[in-house]
Amino acid sequence: MLKPLEITYRNVLKTGDIETVVKEKVKKLEKICDYIVGCNIVLERPHSTVQTGNQFKVRIDITIPHGKNIIVTKNPGNNEMHQSLHAVIRDSFNAAEKQLKKLVQQQRNKVKTHPQQEVTAIVSKIYPEEGYGFLRTINGREIYFHKNSIINDEFNKLETGIGVRFFEEDGEKGPQASTVQVIEKAAKAS
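RE: above sequence
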């Protein structure tokens, strides 16, 4: 991920065990989609005296390029009687995994209607002082780019996580991006 994992605890005791479970689940998501920009997790116990139903709420917000976010929310309800937090986390991540697999499959099949607006990579690293950076393609490859390859002289506006499209060419040290065009702005962390 380009941005660090964020885990928020609300009325839930923060333990190493819970944090380890969440981090393992996120690593599994990263294996499905290696170009995730960020992931925010909220673990919450809305009421401490719930009589019936699930007493925990889990929200997973996954940000990826292409203007797509995956949001899974597991709210307290009468469906499952007093599930443990581990079970609610597991069910939430299972739902997120299904959505992510479907989205990745759609993107890899290139079911897009406006090629001129396709995001083909995101800015993964940028070195403003040196005048270059790297793009991460949908297939997970790292491609070098120089500030002169950015269209409309927007190099100084670049941030990690911004979606771009580009043409690839052979450079002195391997593949490099030319004619890099910003397609979408970086997602803001919530």
